[in-house]
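Budget justification aside, the reviewers requested a transparent look at the raw inputs and outputs of the sequence design task funded under Objective 1. We therefore reproduce one unedited record. The lines immediately below are the structure tokens for a 135-residue chain.
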């Protein structure tokens, strides 16, 4: 019971973190998975320590799932590759910050969805989300 509450609260904290903060802060260009280097450093200064703390203080049987998302304006060709590329780009950023690779996993989630009540065509759906998952 305590462990599930602990993970629940940590996931609530992770729900408030996404890359980019908003699409208007150097987010992903439609159809691309590359990070903007200048913005990613700024983002890491804001969030990497918090993510690292959450991971380091989580049980060994949990890992950080890094889920790449898309919006509906992006062509269906290569959706899997692009969404995985977004997640992997952020995983590499976190890896460079010192978060162990065996505690993270990049996941493709190419289906556009309505995030926080936004339309599935909204570019803010071009994002990466985080979640602790059991191995």
């Amino acid at each position: 019971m305590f462990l599930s509450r602990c993970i629940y609260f940590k996931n609530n904290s992770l729900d408030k973190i996404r890359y980019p903060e908003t699409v208007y802060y150097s987010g992903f260009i439609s159809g691309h998975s590359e990070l903007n280097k200048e913005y990613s450093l700024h983002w890491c200064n804001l969030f990497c320590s918090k993510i690292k703390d959450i991971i380091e203080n989580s049980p060994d049987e949990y890992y950080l799932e890094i889920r790449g998302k898309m919006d509906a304006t992006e062509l269906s060709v290569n959706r899997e590759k692009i969404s995985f590329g977004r997640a992997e780009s952020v995983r590499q950023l976190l890896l460079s910050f010192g978060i162990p690779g065996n505690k993270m996993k990049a996941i493709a989630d190419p289906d556009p969805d309505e995030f926080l009540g936004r339309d599935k065509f909204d570019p803010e759906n071009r994002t990466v989300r985080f979640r602790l998952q059991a191995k």
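Residues 37-56 form the longest helix (20 residues). DSSP finds three helices and four strands in the chain. Computational costs for records of this kind are itemized in the attached budget.
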